[in-house]
Amino acid sequence: MNAALINVSLVFAAGTSGVLALGLVLRDLLRRPENPEQSRRLSLLPPQPTGGRLDLAFYRMVEESGLPLDSFTALLIPLGGGMVGLLTGLLLLDNLLAAATGLVLGCTVPLLVMAVVRWWRVGRMRKELPDALQIVADSIRAGQTLEEAFDLTARDMKGPLSAEFAWGRSQLQLGHAPLSIMARMVRRIPLQEFRVFATAVVVHRRAGGNLSLLTERMAKSARERQELRGHMLAATAGSRLSAVGMIVGSIIAMCVLGWLEPEYVAKFFEHRLGPPLLAIAIGLQLLGTFWVWRVVRENY
């Protein structure tokens, strides 16, 4: 009776969490602002985020991914996924190990999706940033204000940078302080060149200076760093492909072995040393992947 009550409670909690998470996601994605610039105001973090390191890392990842989700929805998605995975293992497979695996996968998959979206968005901004900074520099050199330069950049650029500069233009029109505007844009555009540009804008507003010349130098530096990054990616392609090949190859080999010799795989899992050995192998794979990533990642 107690087990049945626990299962019913978990099913209700998972169903409620899943429906609520889906409803909030649809609300954020299908919301139609009055004008395109207002869609930028769906940003996740408050002006001064607070919390622990894990909380800040999570919210920063969602913020940098550009997803139109508020903080509650972003947090509820992995929690709801974990509950659904947990109940799938309990009700369909009636196995605690499967339930634990479903819980981990349900929480991890949404985070991985957000990380991939963030990686794609930051990559696009890194490629477009030199041209965007060059447009700003040319506009300021021609005598236009920073607001007009942001407007021209938003109209000429495509992709995530266009939305960011459009938001900056709208905030300047409202009379907000450039310090707060640039601080918010720095968090949405996590690139070193843009951070230096934001600092230059704040210093120029306070003490003056040749902002067009400095912005043009930032554009040149961003272009050179982009070329250097391309050379480094080409030089480390072999190592990265080797790591991916080891991971994908081991997964494919395990699946093929389970398809050809299911009795062998079943005996392996039934043996008392089977699951621990599998866990050790997965841990070593993850450790090796992390080590290769640390070695081949660019840091310049």
Annotate the secondary structure layout.
Elements: H1 2-30, H2 53-65, H3 71-93, H4 96-141, H5 146-156, H6 160-173, H7 178-188, H8 192-207, H9 211-235, H10 237-260, H11 262-270, H12 274-296
Helix pairs in contact: 1-3, 2-4, 3-4, 4-5, 4-9, 5-6, 6-7, 7-8, 8-9, 10-11, 10-12
Description:
The protein is mostly helical. The chain folds into three domains: 122 residues, no CATH class; 101 residues, Receptor-associated Protein (Up-down Bundle); 61 residues, no CATH class. 81% of the residues lie in helices and 0% in strands. It is built from twelve helices and no strands. Helix 3 packs antiparallel against helix 4 and helix 10 packs antiparallel against helix 12. The chain is elongated and about 75 Å long. It starts with a helix and ends with a helix.
Task: Write a concise keyword list for the protein shown above.
single chain, 300 residues, mainly alpha, Receptor-associated Protein, 3 domains, 12 helices, elongated
In short:
By secondary structure, this protein is mostly helical. 81% of the residues lie in helices and 0% in strands.
Q: Which class of secondary structure composition applies to the elements?
A: mainly alpha
Q: Largest beta sheet, briefly?
A: none
**SS summary, helix count:** 12
Classify the oligomer.
single chain
Strand content: under 5%
Low-pLDDT ranges: 32-48
Radius of gyration: 24 Å
Report the span from N to C terminus: 61 Å
The best one-word shape is elongated
Output mean pLDDT: 77
Q: What's the helical proportion of residues?
A: over 70%
Strands, count: 0
Number of domains: 3
